Amino acid sequence: MKPILNQILAANLAAEQQEAAAVQAEIRDPATKADRRNFLKKTALGGMALGGFMSLPVEDTLAQASSKVQRASRPSDLKITDMRYATVSNGTAFTNARNVIIRIDTNQGIYGLGEVRDGGDARYALMLKSRLLGQNPCNVELLFKMIKQFGNHGRLGGGVSGVEMALWDLAGKAYGVPVWQLLGGRYRDRVRLYAYIPNSGEGALDKLDLSQFKADVKHRMQEQGFTWLKMHPGIQVYSKLPGATVNTKYVPGFGTDDLSYTSYQNTKHPFTAIQVTDKGLDELARYVDTIRSIVGYEVPLSADHMGHFDVNNCIRVARAMEPFRLASLEDFVPWEMTDQLKTITEAITTPTMTGEDIYLKETFMKLCDAHAVDIVQPDMGSAGGILETKKIGDYAEEKGIAMGLHFAGTPICFMANVHSAAATQNVLALEVPNQIVDNPWWPKLVKMVGKKPLYENGFAYVPDDAPGLGVELDDDVVKEHLHKEDPSYFRPTPEWDERRSHDRTWS
After folding, report:
1. pLDDT above 50: residue 505
2. Which pLDDT belongs to residue 70?
3. Between 3.20.20.450, 3.30.420.40, 3.10.105.10, 3.30.390.10, what CATH number should domain 75-183+487-496 receive?
4. Closest CA to 118 of 141, 101, 143
């Protein structure tokens, strides 16, 4: 494992040990009330492996984890009766401006909340409704196996993943425990978050207002409390400098928002014939040096969106940034190009990372087996949901690979990530992009069921006093931010009740 990852993991472990000690101190404190002390004793079993989640049925996990809790309903009698949705507008990019929240209702009045991957379509989830009606939502693994054939990589995995989140929220509410407890317990009381550098630091260096950027970085780190940042040292930083690149002038749509099939944005990295010159690399190094100097070397600084060019140029670009000890370089080439990722990883000393568009653990297993990257980074909205993300992390851990978590949605998917991260040992940090950390109404979309806030000072709290995901929607706030294309709010969806196909994939 590369040295910088060892440093980050050691720092995370030290923080988690301090948090565990604080829990024990609260248990021993004579001022702690009896009910609080009993709860802490029950939930201080962080990381207990209830048989191993690669093979153990979820029904057995539920029974073990909730054997002594006060049930909030009759789980064995629960039946799914409806699926409804609401679409929130959050962000400006095409990929993250549409956030679909789904609600799965039951015959006992309790419901579960989940979320389709940001930028995904509500119909990815609604088409699954007819397969779920009448089923017991606590049979999470059974239902997941029934519907997972209808997902795929990227946003196509959003429906299955969102349903899976909602099922876990329902199961937690039915058994009266937090979701992390149903996953085998927790390793940490807080989940570290990473944010992006402020928007004032994006773009070509000669266009930046460095005094403004310094003030914004101070706000991000000292006032908002983030201890891990991420930047975009992409080709846009130096491409307008004469002599910095080769062929950018002739690639359709380069430097524009053109999303047509043959444009630069949709051309995979090895096929653009773009090259970066020494002059371009010098300007890139000057930009990264400036950002790193302002941010400082005390915190990890990651990088994403370097540009679309082949493996040889990826290695040249990565080596130009090596003096600045970045924590990770993300998605140098598309995730399915395993051999090329491995070539890059072995050629540089900065940790590599990929995974935000991968669906299900099997593809991550191939990446881990090949040691193609140093860090896997699933997006729960594409990967398959809460338990599937934990399985990915557990498998990566066995191979000596760390896990980061990609995210760009609403507080519903955020909390689903928090519960999975709490129950997975090798998690480094969870992403929170600028449309979240610089958006005052984003955390107000939900109400916390327990006493702790959604997040503060760069860390998300793991709920220990609320069942399920631990949040409920603030209807008034959500209604203020519904997407203009679909302002409906959890309307009935009877048009999706009828099952119209025979879904078995084998004969």
Report:
1. yes
2. 46
3. 3.30.390.10
4. 101
